[in-house]
Design goal:
The protein is built from ten helices and 14 strands. The chain folds into two domains: about 5-225, 3-Layer(aba) Sandwich (Rossmann fold), CATH 3.40.50.300; about 225-295, Alpha-Beta Plaits (2-Layer Sandwich), CATH 3.30.70. The protein has helices spanning about 45-50, 75-80, 95-105, 110-120, 135-150, 165-180, 195-200, 220-225, 270-280, 295-305; strands spanning about 5-15, 20-30, 35, 60-65, 65-70, 80-85, 155-160, 185-190, 205-210, 210-215, 230-235, 250, 260-265, 285-295. The model has no long low-confidence stretch (mean pLDDT about 85).
Length: about 300
């Protein structure tokens, strides 16, 4: 699949000497939803800001739809819509004028029908004549999204877009994201809500301490790094795991009622059959069992711990 964003050997070191980004190579495919995950201070916003032309890189190159974001800034930026974390709007302007003006900044001719569609899609139509100062935080967030879409970008960055907003907006926004992707728009999002990335993303990137430590298709990542667990509900509570079971990856629940066995689902031999025989030999009976697979959040936490 063709790349719409190409990042090559990108670094950023500030005047203080702090290296915010180590050499990063990244290709983002046209029409995909790409989720960038990482703890606070990992470099997510710095990377996005460089791609959007807000921050200059120390070294390396970025192409947005074939345009260099430094040498051909205007053409590159016209392809990109950005919804930043911070709410930055003219408080005394109306919703309609704010979104329309944003379109004009990119040299686009007036298109009231397009602005109307955006406002309706974001449940802002009834607020079109309201001044921004009168809106709630969630409504202001909707306006920021409308501004980012006003010039019909082919690439949309959402930097922590649902932080601190209500459930209704989250639902509306993800429906809008799916519709945009269906129309060929590439979506790049950062989020602390890992369940959103797990539900929405086609591919996942994990960044930590300025280093892009992993980029993987979501399904492949889950299969490759995800653990499975077998949970055994015991007939009788245990105070400790018997010595004869020391060689197994077992955990005992706080109340002693459950034994949890972690295993690699991709392995030819999971060890479950041997474990069950050993339990019977040691006189441990169970009344129920179930299996579960690690979530993306579990995988993310493990990856960050490994690089700590």
């Amino acid at each position: 699949m063709q790349s719409i964003i190409s990042v090559q050997k990108l670094t950023k070191t500030y005047a203080s000497g702090f290296q915010a980004l180590k050499p990063i190579d990244l290709e983002i495919r046209q029409g995909e939803i790409f989720a960038l995950l990482g703890p606070n201070g990992a470099g997510k916003t710095t990377l996005i800001s460089i791609i959007c032309g807000i921050v200059n890189p120390t070294a390396g190159h970025v192409l947005a739809d074939g345009h260099d974001v430094v040498r051909d800034y205007r053409a590159a930026r016209s392809k990109i819509g950005l919804v930043p974390q911070e709410l930055t709007t003219d408080s005394f302007e109306t919703v309609w004028n704010t979104v329309s003006f944003s379109r004009g900044l990119f040299g686009k001719s007036a298109n009231p029908a397009h602005i109307e569609k955006i406002l309706k899609d974001l449940s802002l139509w009834s607020k079109k004549d309201n001044r921004l100062i009168t809106l709630s935080g969630g409504m202001k967030r909707r306006v920021m999204i409308a501004k980012a879409l006003s010039h019909e970008p082919q690439i949309l960055f959402l930097d922590e877009p649902t932080a601190g907003v209500d459930v209704e907006l989250r639902r509306d926004m993800w429906a809008m994201v799916r519709a945009l992707r269906a129309n060929g728009v590439t979506i790049i999002l950062t989020t602390h809500y890992i369940d959103e990335a797990e539900e929405m993303a086609d591919r996942i990137g994990v960044i930590n301490k300025g280093e892009l430590i992993l980029v993987e298709d979501k399904a492949e990542l889950m299969n490759k790094l995800g653990r499975k667990q077998l949970t055994l509900q015991l007939q009788n509570a245990l105070s400790a795991i018997p010595a004869g079971l020391d060689g197994y990856a077992l955990e005992l629940s706080g109340d002693g009622q459950q034994l949890v066995y972690s295993f690699d689902a991709q392995s030819e031999h999971t060890g479950i059959d041997v474990l069950l025989r050993r339990l019977a030999e040691t006189g441990i009976d169970f009344k129920d069992l179930k299996t579960s697979q690690s979530s993306l959040e579990d995988i993310f936490v493990d990856l960050v711990k490994e690089r700590a």
